[in-house]
Amino acid sequence: MTTAYRPRRDYGWFLRNRNYAVFVARELTSVFVAWAIVFLMLVVDAVLNGGDPAAFAGRPWVIALNVLTLAATAFHAVTFLNLAPKATVIRLDGYRIPAWMIQGGNHSAWLLVSAVVAYFVLRSP
After folding, report:
1. Strand pairing partners for 91?
2. What is the pLDDT at residue 75?
3. Are 29 and 75 in contact (CB under 8 A)?
4. I want to staple 53 with a disulfide (CB 3.0 to 4.6 A). Which of 20, 46, 112, 120 is the partner?
């Protein structure tokens, strides 16, 4: 009786191609997006229950994790917005809108919404 041939697993398959590496990195940033949501829920819970959200948020490891989360979610958002023209085909009078216009619109909307949120968060009381 012979055993079946099982090729060795290559756990670094995605490192051989830049596009695959960016894809896997983007998928891994979803963990940081989840942390951002959990952190926001913890802050809202502390505010609603009369707690001090700064007590938890001011810890050095939380600050470091949130800085890393900011970078990861920015990478996640940029790569997501860059993929939009591949998933969305917009036609105007039978002509397809170029990819750069869709990307530019997405990034412009992102910057506008970020500016509005920053205005309300950072303004003086």
Report:
1. 96
2. 94
3. yes
4. 46
The secondary structure element, H or E, covering residue 91 is strand 91-92
Q: Which distant-in-sequence residues (6+ apart) come within 8 Å of 87 by Cβ?
A: none
Q: What pLDDT does 90 receive?
A: 86
Distance CA 6, CA 117 (A): 54
Six-digit token pair at 42? 């913890």
The runs of H, that is alpha helices, within the chain are 18-48, 53-57, 60-87, 99-122
Specify the residue for token string 């023209």: 85
CA distances from 20 to 10, 24, 50, 79, 107 (A): 14, 6, 46, 13, 23
Res 2: pLDDT:
77
Question: What are the tens digits of pLDDT across the range 49-68?
Answer: 988 888 889 999 999 999 99
User: pTM of the predicted model, to two decimals?
Assistant: 0.76
Q: Which two tokens stand for residue 12?
A: 């670094």
